[in-house]
Structure formats: structure tokens, C-alpha cells
Amino acid sequence: MKTFRIVIWVAVLIVAGVLGSITLYPKKSSDVVAEAPFGVPFTLVSQSGQPITEQALRGKPTALFFGFTHCPEVCPTTLFELNGWLEKVDPSGDKLQAYFVTVDPERDTPEIMNAYVSNVSKRITGISGPPEKIAEVIKGFRVYAKKVPVDEKDPNGDYTMDHTASVFLLDSAGRFSGTIAYGENPDTAVKKLENLVNKG
Fold first, then answer.
1. Backbone angles phi, psi at 148, to 5 degrees
2. Which pLDDT tens digit goes with each residue over 108-128?
3. How far from each other are the two terminal CA atoms of the chain, in whole angstroms?
4. Which of 4, 104, 132, 175 could cross-link to 68 by cystine, CB 3.0-4.6 Å?
5. Helices 74-89 & 186-199, crossing angle to 10 degrees?
6. Facing residues of 44 across strands?
């Protein structure tokens, strides 16, 4: 009986050790991932026609949104609300920055982005670029984007885009710090941006 109890305790200790290591190592790896800048390196084009890289997402906390200019509701609403939140949290405009990256580069040239974004905000910068480069950024930033024909019978005709509707929040080192969901309570969104600024 004594031997049986010893065997049981040894088995319990082995199981506990295995479970402990399984719990410990993923935590370590996720901490490492959290320390790295979010997304991937890129060279795209700002709405002013100038080259822009991932370094633009460094130095200040950043609000980053992916969308397209033909978007009927989500994108214009988000840009309008984001502009208001930026004005409230950072009236001087020196603590927080924001970018709007197109998921529809075939139609959203830098000129189109400039006209569209400037009509809504002076605080948000539009970003476009070659389709293959935009595709790399979409994948690297874990954004969902899919072209959807307006008429299923005409797959090569007019289309819209399904896409991630959240605003990504990055700290001043470019690390992921959270999101603001589409339709988020305005007070909650403002609080998230305030926390982002305080975090630096």
C-alpha cells in the first residue's frame, strides 16, 4: 500500500511539472512577441505622394485604421469619430498620430486618398501603394480584407471590400496596445486613447 501511494505521488508530481512547463513557456513566448513592433516593415506612399515606411509608426502613440474610400458607412464613420477623439485627447496634435491604410489600392491612389481623408480630417494621414505591397501589409498586420463583387453574376464588375473594422492602437515603439472596435462607446474610445498617450 505504501509503495502504491509513492507511485501515485510521483505520477502527480510529473503531471504537475508537465502542466507547469506548458503554461510557463507560452507565456514567455507571448511576452517576447509583445515586445516586438506590430506588423511588418513596409515602403508605401502617403496621401501627399511621399514615401512612407513603418518608421512613421514610431516615436508617438498611433491609431491605425484599414479601410477604403468607396466604403459606404464604416470607414467614413470611423474616420469622423477618430478625428473627434484625437481633437479631444490631444488638441495640440503633438502626442498622438493616426493613419488610414487603404485595402483597395486599385482604386485608392494617393490623390484619391488625399481628397477623401482631407475632407474629413487634418489629423489623419492616408496611405496607399502598389497592390502587392498593400497585400503584404494587410497580411503582416493581421487584417482581414476581401474583394466582394456587387453582383455575383458579374465577378469582374463593380466590387466592395469586406475588411477589419477595428482601429489598432500602437505605443510609441510600434507595439500593439489594443483596439477600438467599430461602434465602441465614445467615452471608452477616448479613455483608450488617453491611456495610450499616458503609456507613451
1. -125, 115
2. 999 999 999 999 999 999 999
3. 62
4. 104
5. 50
6. 52
Q: Summarize pLDDT for 156-180 with one digit per residue, the tens.
A: 889 999 999 999 999 999 999 999 9
Ranges of the chain whose pLDDT falls below 50: 2-33
Using DSSP's 3-state secondary structure scheme, residue 135 falls into: helix
163 known ligand binder: yes
Grid cell, residue 70, equals: 468607396
Question: Which CATH superfamily does the domain covering 43-199 fall into?
Answer: Glutaredoxin (3.40.30.10)
Residue with cell 512612407: 52
Would you give the distance in Å from CA 88 to the centre of its chain? 21
Could you tell me the residue ranges of all domains in the chain?
43-199
- How far, in Å, CA of 43 to CA of 137, rounded? 9
What is the per-residue pLDDT for 13?
Answer: 39
